[in-house]
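job 3f2a | input accepted
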Amino acid sequence: MKLFLNTALGLSEDIIKKCNNINYYTTQLDCKNLNNMMQFIKNANYESQYEELIKNIILQLYILNTENKNENEINSNIELFIKICLLYLNGGIIINSNIRIINLEALKDIYNRQIVCVIQSCINKNSIFDGIIMSNKGNVGLLEIINSFLNNKETKINDLLLSKSMLLNEEIMNNKSNIFYKGQIIAEHYFKNKSLIEINKFYKPAPSDLSKLKIGITIAMPSNLKDFYSNGIKQNCLYLYELLNNLKYDVKLIIDDEKNAFILKNIDFYNFEYVTINNIFSYDFDLVFSLGFSIPTNIFNGLTNIGTKIVYYVCGNNYLIDSERILYDQHKTRNIDYENDKMYSQIWIIPQMYNQNKYYCEILNKTKCIEIPFIWSPMSIKFMTKVLDLENDSSLIYKKKDSKIGIFEPNISIMKWALPSLLIAENTYRNYKNISHVYVTNISNKQDNNINNFNSQQFNNVCKSLNLCKDRKISIESRYIILDFMSKHCDIVISHQWENPLNYLYLDLAWMGWPILHNAHLCKDVGYYYEGFNYYDGSEKLNHILTNHAANANEYIIKNRKTIDMYIPSNKELQNKYRNLIENLFA
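job 3f2a | predicted structure (587 res):
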């Protein structure tokens, strides 16, 4: 028989696995009465011995309760006993993460009355729903319940709590139940959600030392190192981590998939610390950024219930992507869901997404949105060097290659796709005949139908009208690591965006000296800039690059690295801006 535990008890996954093997430990604690438990705590370093204490209580109770009894009943009785022991030792509230607190002041009022409080089940009036149990530390009523149980192991903790606690009522309403206190709804229980996570904490006060905040960043783990750079969101997670780490915060990545954690462990140029989303309550976060993936509703509610600030960090164009998802059934992996009532502390939007998304996000999420500074890091070059198994990045630095153009737009949204850049190259070729080849990448015959359906036939119909095509100067390519492709095939990049006027692509290329021609007005000083949708302007700038860049390559890389410094996590002004943003959350 096994004991089924969860992170409500503050146990690590390793401890839980070991506790499930009853033969693994020999007991060190006589658990026949509470005085022995108290003496054990008194003689031990409480913080470091916490898991050992809980383990020993579990083992003793397991041994005392396993003969000739129903396994589920044993587990339920023991788990409930452990919960009330934790409340007696710590005080506070144990909250099932499927509960969303909507009246914190009412809960504080109950807590301040220094009573034991439980919820009477609306299904069986002779039992409790243990989704909320609260008591102050050292409560006499809990002590009586604990000693009653230890003196008579046949007693059910449920019955003791019913007879000696204040009972709140719950009432089922559609897919949830409402929990009442003095005629007011104080919490909602989403009982259809299944969760193994419970929280053994009470609502945290604001941190006394904001310089020592514990901060988490969600990141969707790829299956290989290369895919960290398959989209900007994963990069943004790592760059934000680097910035917060430079600020000396206690920062962790919150990963969604433990089996891919080996990727972080194998990165030898940076030490990324992490926790798994399923073990998030074992780490006492003050602030969590929902960035790389959306936090599940039950965990979200649990975090907000204990006072953790949750910031939705927007670095994608939600408005355009949602629009294309609805109108054209593109972006099939994106599920649009604004019904979950997640109440973020704030929404942060990077500058290039602010114009289209501020009010869109505010209205749909019912939360204030603010613009925040953009972050980029030379870490990206180190990643590419490692992925390509290079000794250093010298081969990725600019080298002239006889007027060959690369176009690297992702081609999954109208926001960034190849045709505008191709038209700039076409007009330059018509006027000056000085382009030897154009590579249009991120297009293949095997498009990822989970993202979008690229109409190759119609794209070919457009390309056939171009002189570049008629003179066999265009090739259609698949997806590549851009700097690697540049080092082997191209020497100039043309880019075009609509409502995305800052892009990692520009900074990666300009940092390594490659000429990047773009229309991103928020970074006009990076690379070479042309205005808006003015392809003629872009064409003249491209001709200038073809004619002059190679002779000025050294000055170009020095100028661009100086400009890009404002986005780097080591920049003090950038650090101060983020410190102020974070501290304002706790004001």
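job 3f2a | The longest helix spans residues 46-65.
job 3f2a | closed
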